[in-house]
Amino acid sequence: SKGLGGKQAQYYSKQFHQKIESRIRIEHDLKRAIERDEFVLYYQPQVDSQSFDLVGVEALIRWQHPEMGLVPPDEFIPIAEESHFINELGRWVMDEACKQFQIWLNKPGMKDLNFTISVNLSARQLKDAGLSEFLLECLERYHIPADRIELELTESSLESSLVALDMLNKMSALGVKLALDDFGTGYSSLSHLNEYPFNILKIDKSFVRFIEHEDEASLLKAISSFAHSLGFDTVAEGVETSFQRDLCARLGVKRLQGYFFSPPIPANEIEIMWQPKPAI
Ligand code: C2E
Ligand code: CA
Ligand code: CA
Ligand code: CA
């Protein structure tokens, strides 16, 4: 055969070229996006698996690029992680989430609700020496009870290092909760569970969202019972159907998150969801 000759090769090389160009563009524009105020946090609701009450939100960053539109985090977080820029971006996220939380805690209909806010941290940020002081400053500046904040770290990105462990212990000592994100997908879950001060295991969506029948649930069952037997609270992400909702509830998963309830949405839409329903 002629292999990748002629038109096809041209097609692939053009696509490749476009990829590189957009990557260079992202790298270049990313550094100015904070000062240009182009980042925004969306929030995805988490519900209690038994009462279906809204009990938390996860903050998920979006980049509103002036020409490229809404850029998803998978397209720029990995690039930010290749440089120190992730530290600046991660601090922006922490500050912004706390600022929003203070607004919610002061709203008449919302202040009595005992909900939490989850913030994603990149493992690389654990090397940002002043991070725990910065977090404390945010908590104080916005008058936020520490135990209402959850920090999520992905399992696969965590490397065993004393610096990372020390930072996690410092933040845990402030009273914030630590969640191990994408649980079940990492390589060394067991050693990390012992080593690090995690409170919550967040079961990765790949174990939840594809389940259509009971007989496809063995991994989810094993992972959740493992987590519970070690005394962890669990959150399931990727709950997309009522069957998955009911299954997770039956397995004792404490909180549920996924498109079945809501995608990530802007802060003002969260407020609408939280408005007390008028009595009928
Ligand atoms: P993640 O922390 O695992 O967040 C969950 C992702 O799953 C989100 O994608 C969310 O929109 C999506 N998702 C939620 N429910 C469902 C569902 O029912 N089905 C499916 N298929 N997907 C669902 P998103 O917002 O695109 O974020 C992707 C990743 O980017 C996040 O994964 C997280 O690792 C990273 N990320 C997002 N915001 C931040 C941030 O502020 N800082 C850092 N360091 N990373 C962030
Ligand atoms: Ca997360
Ligand atoms: Ca996750
Ligand atoms: Ca993920």
Plain-language structure description:
This is Response regulator receiver modulated diguanylate cyclase/phosphodiesterase. Helix 3 runs parallel beside helix 4 (131-141). Strand 5 (149-154), helix 5 and strand 6 form a beta-alpha-beta unit. The chain has an eight-stranded mixed barrel with strand order 1-2-4-5-6-7-8-9, surrounded by five helices. By secondary structure, the chain is α/β, with parallel strands linked by helices. It contains nine helices and nine strands. The radius of gyration is 20 Å and the shape is globular. The structure holds ligand C2E and calcium ion (3 copies). Ligand C2E is lined by residues 44, 60-61, 72-74, 77, 90, 93, 120-122, 152, 154, 181-182, 205, 209, 237-240, 258-259, 264.
Topology of this structure?
Elements: H1 6-33, E1 39-48, E2 54-65, E3 69-71, H2 77-80, H3 85-105, E4 116-121, H4 131-141, E5 149-154, H5 162-173, E6 177-183, H6 189-195, E7 200-203, H7 218-229, E8 233-236, H8 242-250, E9 255-256, H9 267-274
Parallel strand pairs: 2-4, 4-5, 5-6, 6-7, 7-8, 8-9
Antiparallel strand pairs: 1-2, 1-9, 2-3
The chain binds ligand C2E and calcium ion (3 copies).
One calcium ion is lined by residues 154, 182.
Protein name: Response regulator receiver modulated diguanylate cyclase/phosphodiesterase
Domain EAL: 23-278
